[in-house]
Amino acid sequence: MNTFSILLVEDDSIERLKFKKVLKKLNENYTITEAENGRCALRFLEDNKSSFNLIISDFNMPKMNGLEFLKEIKTKTQFKNIPFVMLTNTNDTDELKKCFDLGVSGCFTKPQNLSDYSKKIKTILKYWHTNMTFLAVN
Amino acid sequence: METPNLVFIKKLSEGDQLFENNILDILKKEFLEECNEFNNNISEKNYDKAAFNVHKIKHKIGLLGMQDAFELSTNFENELKKEEIKLHPSFLEILDKIHVFLSKLKIE
Which residues touch A51 (CB under 8 Å, ≥6 apart)? Predict the structure, then answer.
């Protein structure tokens, strides 16, 4: 089985911990690479030879937030087609609209408990595996 | 005012002691750092940066089961974005309670 490679961009280490715990429970072969903000993630993408199947990024981060990171990604030919999912803490429609205008593949609000987290991640991965496209899964 | 507790963290951990300990380790370490950064930003009137500090701290407040304090923090974060600090004293009270709680907390 091929390894499914995810770049997780999130400044909150507890959120990263939750995300990794959920993915570990899923019965598939994943690798997760972690970056603390958009700037780190961009540097990591540019320096790294390995490719990612999916980018999952927090919206609200210091130095370079999720929206700025998404903008950068979409200007770079080598990365612009990597599916990009935005994690948010809000249902602010203006924020979500900005993400979709820039070509984000999907947005979801961060669930508080692990079982909801697991359901949302399964939904994202299911869409990725079947369609290579996403829907918003708020 | 409500008091910090581990009810939510225990529920989140679903009996996984290692996961719970990891969360508590991070909480103890980062809470102190983030509070120091917040206090510096307030002293220097960097309210935008202080708002971001509050944004991060409030998730830890939520993890410690303090829903009213979480709401107050959200309001304070929004206040700071408008360069207002009326809720600062109430926010400091919350931070003090958490400092006391975390300093007494023994990780199993």
Answer: A5, A82
